[in-house]
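Researcher: Next sequence.
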Amino acid sequence: MILSELIYRVSITASLGNMSTEITHITFDSRQVTKGTLFIAIKGVAQDGHEFIPQAIKQGASAILCNEIPTGSPDEIAFVAAEDTNEALARVASNFYGNPSEKLTLVG
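Model: Next structure:
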């Protein structure tokens, strides 16, 4: 899926790089990053995912979604900054998997 399609309905504050980058995997765990991955940096209670952006890039990430684009970012990696990366993760995952909740029939 194309990065620009994945970030549909995400509150983006900035972007850098090729938004037509092909994404084959999404993760917020830098240990699971492979070529074609969108790495989503999330600030947690014990760890800040932004600290793992260099590791994700080294492992082949094609794009990074974070709160703030780091200075000196490599040109070959697409960066997207969002207001809330937790909310962005939910929207990106929904887009990646074809918005499954829209296909549910609810009866109340």
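Model: Residues 92 and 107 are 27 Å apart (CA to CA). DSSP finds three helices and five strands in the chain.
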